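Researcher: Going back to the complex we discussed earlier. I've cleaned up the inputs and rechecked each line, so this should be the final set. Can you rerun the prediction on the complete assembly and write out the structure?
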Amino acid sequence: MKRSIANPSYVLTFSFSLITFALALFFPFLLSYQEQNQLFLWTANYFLESLTTPGGFARYVAEFIVQFYYIPWFGALLFALVFGLFSYLLSALLKGWWRMLAIPVVLFVLWQMGDEAMTLTYPIALVMDLLLLNAMRRMPIWVDYLVYLLFFWLIGPLVVVYGILRIGALDRTIRRWNSRSPWYNHSLKGLILPLLLEPFLLLLLFPHQCTIQAVTMGLWYSRYPQWGLNGGYDKDRYELMRQDYLVRYARWDEIIERAEQHTVESPFWSECVNLALAMKGQLPYRQFEFYQSGSDALIMSMVRDQTSNLPSMEAFYRLGMTNECLRYAFDLQESIPMGRKSGRLSQRIVECSLVKGNYDVARKYIRLLKNTFFYRSWAEDAEQYLGNEEKINAHPVWGAMRRSAFKQDFLYYYPELAKTFYDLLLSNTDNKIAMQYVYAQLMLDGNAYVFNQMMRFVLRYGNYPEMPPVYQDAWQCMNGEATPESRYAEYFGRRNNALNSFPYAPSH
Amino acid sequence: MRHLINIGFKRFQEVSRRGFRRVFKNSLFILMLIAFTACQVTPEDVRHVAQQPDIFPDYIGVTIPAEIAPMNFEMQDEDIELMDITVKGSKGGEMHFQGEYADFDAEEWHALTKANKGGQLNFTVCVLKDGKWIQYEDFEINVSDYPLDDFGLTYRLIAPGYEVGGDMGIYQRDLHSFDEYALIESLNTPGQCMNCHTANQCRADQFLFHLRGEKSGTMLQNGDNLTWLNTMTDSTMANCSYSYWHPSGHYVASSINKIYQLFYTGNKRRIEVFDTMSDVLVIDTRTNELILNPLLQQNEWLETYPAFSPDGRTLYFCSAKAQNLPDDIYNIRYSLCQIAFDAEKGCYGTQVDTLLNAERDSLSYTFPRPSYDGKWLMYDVCAFGNFPTNHPESDIWLMNLKTGQTHPLKEANSDDADSYHSWSSNSHWIVFSSRRDGGVYNKAYIASIDNEGRATKPFLLPQRHPKQYYDELLESYNCPDFTHEKVELDVRKASDKIMHGKDKQQVTIR
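Model: Rerun complete. Updated structure for the full complex:
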């Protein structure tokens, strides 16, 4: 019998594949976010280590796919294929109009995946459940006892979905047999229920070494145990991810264009926009056209998660503050849950270590990156720089970072950020980013006294044809000559709720 | 059963890891050897060179205890196709190995080292490179007369990071084999930073470790009792940090520290860790009471790193005059001090004696560790501060407790940071962390100490495939210590207590 292409399962599959593909293409930054929070290694050891925790196999498959998010369109295609397969398996399970039930289920899962903390492990585990259900259709129930346990280990606690569906399927069979043998019916039902409890029995087998946390780590299909209930597509969160994505790929003009259209009132957003402005030399001209979060609008102090400090790390990198960039990159990477590494952050660690001449650290991370698919060639290239001082000095970025390095070794102190930028500028007066950041920070802090003192420095090293308007505006405000349309006054009014409350007001 | 599963899985992992990698790396020559001859080749037309082989780890001239795990090594030159190694004992015995790197059979190795206790093992190394054999000058490894009876080491593996600990764990390692066991890992206590395992004179049944962060506290195992303590009170400013057991097991001396970190902008140093406040106190483990003393809790002084003498009558600690930190960080130097302690009454002496005066010497003395035979006091010396592992100049010194004379352990120290030292139960071996190899990652080194307090050249903790292991390792060996027997910890119970605050006991002040 010929199958019609109008088969509702095919229609659903095609529709969902298309929708998911379009969505993923529309949100490349979400794919990039997922990709930068893991590092899939093509080693046997990585595979074996994945198998040591429940759900590890599903996670391994998911991470295998997510590594391809490095190329957004290809990542979107794979993401669509996963959802296509999910919707096909789900609709094939149901008959007639019941197939329409697949629509809300797939949409719900897709909505959950809108939470950036959710990993692809979640839909992969669901797909595996459904594949298993298909494979087990003709198998006797005793096989379930082995398979259920095995799949608990392979895909984690979501195997319960399989368990419930399997019980439903078996129940139909039992009802069919009901008239034949009531005894058989009761025996089967009695056997089914313990099936769901099997994983808990597994816990008892490992009374000491295997803690509840270790076994239930599989629950974490999300990076945090929240089950995607913060799902959906939060506009502001997505805007921040987009800005970070653009920063990652140094797309400065796009950052500024986006900032002109949409503001997110957070230090993360301010940092991305200010960095883009500085990279384009526009910070002295446009800084206060955009929302400034406060003294943390250029660099944030350390936040212990895997995202918040990304723009700060990138700013340090562009400024040539190698140690700080390395520190933030390292701590960001160590903050990724479950000890996962990141290609993006490992690259930064290698770069900073090469600049610092710390070849032992660089070698370790190069070795790590050489086991990946997309970072391998970069790592092989970086390997050529190990121990080669001349080559590093001649590198357009790393050489510049060396030339920008602090001449004096001192302890970094976040509350004195402006002074740190100033020392950096003194170490290399050609460092245009540092020059912009010194004044930007002084203005953000409202440090009128130092700002006034340093105006001659601007004129000397800035090479500005005339005093940049942002500096003029701030200078006027700080000296009590604010104009009604002053953006700096507006910023400071918002910050301190009074124009005359500069913390370091000059004494007249 | 559980151990069998663990060991079986580890073996599977090791074999697989080695197997997969090697297949791709092996030269055609080696594959032909395996496929067609399945036997070893005899080096022919050997060219002799007048130098010793450049091997990793550098085991040339080190002193090892008998029956330590095989001292596997490999050539630094990665283009070597094959190594042929003959080991001859000065007191008899011989073993031969051929392969890509020296991977000795454990049983043969143990028998050879045992037979050559007090003697030397002579290594003849030939390598095949570009199809030609090269023979290097022989080198020797000394086998000490002093036994190393302890089961192994405990240590924390932690990424040498900055403010975020990341994934970490406390592990133990059998020193006579390559088996490593997890005591507790981040997986068991997600999001918590765990401090080092502190045992009572290498005992496996009396130990503690601290946790920092949201679920902070002290996990104390005393025999079969596992106690989860909240050591912070209204009168003490923080939880316990650096601890040391009284030999009776009835007390634990601890420091309470307000710890801060700052980071250098230059290339020479990475981090400066300092305390803005710190005191020393003693916990009575029978009553969970804190025993305080004004001499150890002075506002104008920072007291830290307590350690009891092996007879339990003296409490060593470090003390520095409080400074305006971080501005005066380069002026903060710790003296080595002692105060009497009466275990019967659970009280301190009435005066503090200074053993080593930091102001006089312009040096900072930290981390006192008395040998368990009562002869020596081992400590760290650095230019300033109290966190020697971050000071490249930090070295390990020894004080003769009878004469008060001090000397550096020249043979064991390096140009980089050497710190976190501990004694073996017979006080003839030390283990310490060293950053000598690359300057960032701490690795565990072991050296012997003779009756005159002289150290031997230390050796890096042996691994089955050392180069691969240490190249791939992204963690540091932190606070290694000997353990006489294998430590048993009920991780589930500990994890329940930590994560759910189950049976958490509040210390009180006596």
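Model: Worth noting: The first helix of chain B runs from residue 2 to 25.
Researcher: Good, that matches what I expected from the previous run.
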